[in-house]
């Protein structure tokens, strides 16, 4: 993407600043073939407005569960828009291995502390679990997966239905954390749940002890690497690899650009 397009994207971002909450949230994205001929391969999917509207429907006791577990910030999620051109431009100038955005010989180094500040998620030091050699844990995770399965897929809407109906605190928080991970923290594809992280939700009280910030950086780095390596085959390959996480970098970039560049 040319610098002229980047300048245009930054200008459009300025018109949206009044709508962006101090606690940033994702504009969910997906990469698709350019069937409509608009030159854009990144498309919007599960948006912050959907998350915001869903949270408003929760019962008072359910909201209390969320606040009790240190996640009350989610009620500050608002609807806002990050231009696709800006997202693509930021990705083109960000290096996956070093987590750095470089422009005009200046740079922003994305760190775990920045991820924690932007996401608001509690983050500890233990590695996030996405598999297990323990037979009992494996069986329990498979049982959990069945709750979310719908026509051979794990769709976010099914999780939302379970959340709405659940009054047991522990079960509610497992559903809710799965929802947050899949819509805000480590996004899946095509509005599906990232069920591999159920291994880290077997005991929901340990959620904050896992290093979610590092997992987010590693996940985005992998996405960025795929974006670069397949840039000449965007239509055929990126649909399978990019998912919807790239907008997080746009939010981090926006929050620090004026101060550092």
From TrEMBL:
It comes from the Eukaryota. This is DUF1985 domain-containing protein. The lineage of its organism: Eukaryota, Viridiplantae, Streptophyta, Embryophyta, Tracheophyta.
